[in-house]
Amino acid sequence: MTDRWARAEERFRQREADRRYRRDDRAWANEPRGRAATGSNPDAWDDYDDDTTVIPRYTDDEPFYEGPALYDPAKDADYDGYDAAGDFEADFDDEPEAPEPPKRGKAVRTNSRATKRGKPDRPSKSPRNRRSRAASRKAAERKRRRRNLWVIAGVFIILFAGAAGFAVKKFAESFGPPADYAGPGGPLVVVQVHPGDTSTQIADTMLEKDVVKSSSAFFQAAMRNSNMTSVQPGYYAIPSQIPAAQAVTTLVGKGSRVGNLVVAEGKLLHDQHEVGTEERAEGLYTKIAAASCVGTGSQQKCASADQLAAAGSSTDLAGLGVPAWAMNEVRAAPDRSRQLDGLIAAGTWDFDPSGTPQQILRQLITQSAASYESTGLLQSGAETKLSPYQTLIAASMVEREAKPQDMGKVARVIVNRLAIDQPLQFDSTVNYSLDKTEVATTDADRAAKTPWNTYAMPGLPANPIAAPSLNALRAMENPEPGNWLYFVTIDKKGTTLFTESYAEHLRNIKKAQDSGILDSGR
After folding, report:
1. pTM
2. Higher per-residue confidence, 123 vs 509
3. Residue 205 CB-half CA count within 13 A
């Protein structure tokens, strides 16, 4: 390609030289040519007017192109054969043509007036100028790209410097003690330890709650305290902004745990009293209130039993966490103050004591519902013909009436009686709505018509009468096979006799009376 352009340029220069300096044959024909030309007139040369004393200089309107080669790949690697106007300049398949020669101007002598005045030439329109403009645009584009690259490089440098500074800071901190509070401590905050939490995760929680100044300080203190392995999942009340060692000591101490509730099997929501002794049997609202206290003395904060009872009577059942399978029956409850009975299961539960009464109840009911459902409650009922909520009601009766070894048989008695529409006649359903209770019930109590008294009506009570254990629930989901219709506990050891004969049942009642278990304190 370079050879072609070189040859084309050489031909162009040759033609231009021929054009500028070619001989005028017609002028030579009219002039004497010397002795050889004029023959016998040797003086012809004397008559020849030699006008070459001043050599004319030719000037063109367009200056003659005497620049570098039209195309040099080594100097212009970006040149693609097009000029600045977008016209194709070279045909690489054929021999390149020389550029059109510039227009010839008139000859002037070197001492011409225009030359002496230094009159400027007109702007050139040569291909070189067009390529110069294209080169200028390319140079501007390259400059813009370089500027962008510098901007991007600057951003990366700033980011790298920031990361390097952070790394250096962390590296320097690793050689010194971690940041820590000096004390004396601020208000109590509630910190939750989740099941499976490691010391690192607990340290992060402490930092988030502003108990310690750095998680590293807590972690190092925890590694030095062997009692950290005994920390149980739950909620802990710990002062804010205290030294890490003090935070660890407080966490593993006995008095820091809060929101821990133990629900005994058969518990009711409300308090009851024992006939004769007047001993109070604390209900769930009272126990939850005690477990909700945070702090001591005048700084202590608790949710009261009355506040919990008011929240538990709300018609916002979804806000209370009532499960969908119990929603319709709870909504139809005859007594709002008792509508949540049985929905808080027996067991050990943790709740956030810093929440509102409604939030506390919701947390407990949600956990209990999940526990109930784990037994297969939602899939039960094929054999008993009971809904999940009815199964829960029956299980609460089993909890109040039977020892663990007899739960399956009591569950079968309930199913058998419901199948023949026979009143259940459970004394526990009579005692449920009474403030003072005992094992033996009076005729007046059994005759009183309430939504729960199974002596005065057929079927199940309106709602659970206690918090059932999972054993009672499983027994109700899968009753022990049998034809029993009657049972009675005959001694204080809890011995219970089952029968399908009413006559035999009367004889068993006599045994109970003889043992004194059915004696009334009223």
Report:
1. 0.66
2. 509
3. 20
